[in-house]
Amino acid sequence: MEEGYEEEKSPIQSQNYEEQKHTEGESEANNDMQEEFDDDGEGDYERGEGVNALNLEFVRGYNKDIKDGVHNLTNGERKAIFYSAAHTGVIYDYEEGEQKLLQGHCNKITCTACSADKRLIVTADSGIDSMLVLWDSYDGIPIRTYFNPYENGICALDISQDGRYLATISDDKFQAVSIWDLQNEELDEPIITTLCGYARDDKQYLIKFNPSDVYELVCHGESQLAFLSWSEDSDEIEYYLSPIQQSSFSKKEKKNAAFTSTVFIPDSTKAVTSTEKGDLLVWDISLIVDGMSHTNEKRLTKVLELHQDETSINTLTIHGDYLVTGNEDGSVRFYDFDLKICGWFENLDLGVIKSISFADEEPKSVDHEEEAEEELKCADFIVADSNAVVCKLESRLFEELEPDQKKGEVIFTGLKSAINCIAVHPHEPILAIGGKSGFLITWNYTTKEEEYKQLKEEPCAIEYSPDGKYLMGGTADGLIRIYDPYNDMVELQAPCKTSERSDHAIKQLIVSNDSEHFATMDVNNCVCLFKRDHKYGDPNEPIEWVFYGKVRSHEIEITSIAFGESLDTNDETQLRLFSIGKDRILFEYDVRKSSERNGLVIDNSRTMMIEQENVPTACIWYPTVDSKEDLLLTVNDVYKMKIWNVKSSQCRKTCLGPTYGGDISRLKKLEIDGNPDKFLAYSTFEKVIGLIKLPLDGNPTKTMGLIAHPNKVADMCVTSDGKYLFTCGGADLCVNKWSIDVTPIDNAIMMGGEGTEPFINLIEGGRDGQTFQDMKDFFYYSMVKSKTEGEDTTKTRKLDGKVSINQLGNLMRAMGHYPTLKEIENMMNEVEFAHFSENCEKVDRFDLDTFVKLFVNHRPVFGIGRPHIEKAFNTLFVDAKKNQPLDKVPREQFLQELASEGEPLMNQELGDLLDKLVGKPNIKEALGENIWPETFAKDILSFEEVEEDEDDEEGDYDPAYQEDNPNSTFAQDVIPEENIN
């Protein structure tokens, strides 16, 4: 899902939060985005400086593939550059090593620009809920924000020489060009917009102002180039195309060479376009009028073959009196405006040049005793290449004779391929980063120093042992490698191959608390166990990491594995291993009985079905204090978190989890030094990370979330002291360092009210609404009815304010929630064992407050409508020959499925239900010979029509819907007021 998700409206989410949009990380949101971000925190728990519990502190990596995306801000006052990293802008002071983070976009930034005086920065993104933002480059504060400039955002932009006008190209199917007046503070839309009718088959990705004439621009894609003109008195942008003759090229195949960049030559009528075949195309006003054009229109007048080996000229820029080219071979060349070469910088050990940007300083010349007329004079400049290297070059390097002296100064190196996994050392400020191209980087997040190791295989999962002695890595080929973190990542033993198939990649790797075991899961639905032991169990053999075996326990995809620890009958710690999958089964593995000889043994007595129709997505051993029960926490794809007693196989609690950002994919235990409270850190499959304060009870004020990456959250880890959380975004090539300050969560809990108040606020209408009044009426009626006097007596009743747990199902159904028998059993267990871990006592009655919490936590986040019934029909009743859903279902087949699938519904019970629904106890009369899904939903169940946006897959997120979804807690998109403070 490239652009995000679409989420159905929740009946639970009705609290009147103040809706605030478009901030992230460290500042309170507001539509003007005028707050200054706090980026100097150290993450200490006591300081309480952050506005959010997670505050972005540093970004490792940047968007290397954006052409002309690195801008040199250096002048006499500072030595800094600007670039974008995923959806964050970064002003990096490379002398001090400090970053100013420009936050606000929720999509990946697609294009950037910088004014000639280096004062103004412009960023734009594409996708749903896109933005165009103007920033002050000195303090990093947004000056102006344009929301949703186009339907799908912006793919290219440029700012005029005087900094007044901005030109943009939309990223829509039918692209448009717009001109914006940046000095008109009352206008929130472009002054002119025109569709690019000339280029429907060639996406336009570049637009440039003429620095000498603000009313002229050039726009092009790979093959179609147009010159544009506009005026303040016109409501349209005019354009004209210049035909290219094949005879202009010396080689036929160059006719199809893609355009790469275009610039205007200052104080002239010329423009120059570069191609991927190494040519420069010169455009100028032609004095010959052919009857099809005007004298002021530019024509192709010259084609220069600069690179005979067809090395691509990837980018062009103007500096002083020079045309500067950045080339595919990593070289930078300077030409005068007659296109004669004046200087070159080669052998720089750079990849394809993506950006060239000069400092705002006086040009420097080489220090000769006598100044030559044709001596190269240029300011220091920054180049960025396709390998994510950002390098500073000086004019003096042109005269250096030794090749090693010609190389520039590397300011920093980003990440050149997608990031698969990260892991943080338990004792040292070291983060390990594994990437798709086979790299393993160990990054000191305090000093910013790093070491690079190129591996033969692609690391997919990495994890440090809790004692810090080992770094375990699982690869895309199913190999397990063990590294020594304290000895330059030297491998400690030969790699172990968990599978003969090279495509069985490792998906997750976990290490036990004793650092003696680790387990993996792979794409072939196998779980593997390793132990530090003697080979073959022979004490004469050295101790090493031994492969205990694997088992393909799940029929379909495994979603998570987890270690746990409990005390056995001898009060000895027993290590436990669990896995959950899309088959809805929880497996436990007998670690004690597993060995190199026995393999990995499944404990069948502890295997259980934990979901009936929903999919579990993540699990973790539930961290409790002095609990007398062994508990495992699982989360599913409908925002429910469940705590299981793994000995009795009973569900101890079901809670409403974070309902923003889709399904939770990862859970990490978070313990903060100096803070006795326990937390969980989580990440979803897309965009969102957050924190949850324990113990779990469904209180929405105990959770927070924010957009960490514009798309996928590839991995997440937390430091052992609880100060920092790290995330990586996969293809966005960025690792984010977040400081943790849980004070805002504590404040939100205090402001949210005590007892059931936060839960009542999640019910439609709150405390004064009809739903809550109905709850009280039904509860009191049930309490009265349960008394021996009966409901019709006039005698004085003695009520204790509690109801038997046997009435839970009836009360839930009375409130419009129809739980299955298994769900009712889970509710009853939850009430019965609510205080069992404290005093080992069971209860069989519950009060109104308990009922409120159970109702909010157990009822579905999304209501069930006709589309869900039709989907169920299409799943259950399929024509085996055509492999297509049946249009109509024979009554006997329908009754057979009801009696055999799921929780059986027999004819007598079905007749009673039909009598209550339609007043016809006779099944044949009520159902007829055939049953249609739509008529069953409408005529039998009386389901009403559901809004179109509720028909989408559950768990998807639609940013446009967030306006009506008050329980969404995005720190960047929509934040509940009590989670901001």
From TrEMBL:
Gene3D superfamilies referenced in this protein's UniProt entry, alphabetically: EF-hand (1.10.238.10), YVTN repeat-like/Quinoprotein amine dehydrogenase (2.130.10.10)
Compartments reported by the entry: Cell projection, Cilium
Positions of the UniProt region annotated as Disordered: 1-48, 944-981
Annotated keywords: Cell projection, Repeat, WD repeat
A Pfam entry, by short name: WD40
WD repeats by residue range: 461-484
SMART domains in alphabetical order: WD40 (SM00320)
SUPFAM superfamilies listed in its UniProt record: EF-hand, WD40 repeat-like
PROSITE patterns linked to this entry: WD_REPEATS_2 (PS50082)
InterPro entries the record matches: EF-hand-dom_pair, WD40/YVTN_repeat-like_dom_sf, WD40_repeat_dom_sf, WD40_rpt, WD_repeat_EMAP
Primary localization class, coarse: other
GO cellular component labels: motile cilium
Biased composition, class Acidic residues, residue ranges: 26-43, 944-957
Name of this chain's protein: Cilia- and flagella-associated protein 251
Species in which this protein is naturally found: Euplotes crassus
